[in-house]
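#struct-help
A.M.: can someone run this one for me? Single chain, 256 residues.
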Amino acid sequence: MTGISALLGVGEAGLWHGLVVFLRAGALMALLPGFSEQSVPVRVRLLLALALALVCAPLVPLVPGPATLPVFLRYLLSESIAGLALGLGLRSLVFALQIAGSMAAQATSLSQVFGAAGVEPLPALGHVLVVAGLALAMLFDLHVRAVLYLVQSYSLLPAGQLPDPRALSLWGIATTGQAVALAFTLAAPFVVISLLYNVTLGVINRAMPQLMVAFVGAPLITFGSIFLLWLLAPAMLGVWIEALMRFLHAPFDVVR
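D.P.: on it. Structure tokens below:
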């Protein structure tokens, strides 16, 4: 009987530890790029969260009990906040691609061309960048890096401890600012080309008022932007994947 009681105690402690890890892993999986897209069924996302928790549970410090309702509620709040914060940090980099695509499309008069991949339609340039970025992230073993990302988070966000609101808000502001700056960097060539195009069009219109410069320039800016996307997409995605890998390695360095 003593051996059975000890075995049941070990099993109960293991289940409690796995449950606490699942709370953070599930919150992270709800926002993890590539795995939390609208095209992924909810049941598949739940299985992925369970698999992530199963892989990470042996690698994180053992969560002490007792497994009572007040303790569970405390862990539910702290782990959900930590997982959502980690997921939002990664999701902000996907937002950077979406913003860059929208800026490029607006600058090159392609904003009325919509893709149909999300709940809210994106311009075609944004859709292409997001799909290519997610595919590149998978090629760079995002699933493996997500495990390390989650395991390393316990050293800075211990289980059961609520994050400091001030530090968390400063980190969120810094992460958002970094994502917006990245979006501007990626879209800068399109904005510069658009500026040069509009200045040139204005000069031609002043020199030749009778010429319908809009009809002449519209095909030029359309095909020019498509050519520019083909030319610069590898470099843009290279900058983005470098920022993603750097964030996965040190997500809290943005505030330093």
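A.M.: thanks! Residues 2-255 form one domain.
D.P.: also worth noting: The first helix runs from residue 2 to 29.
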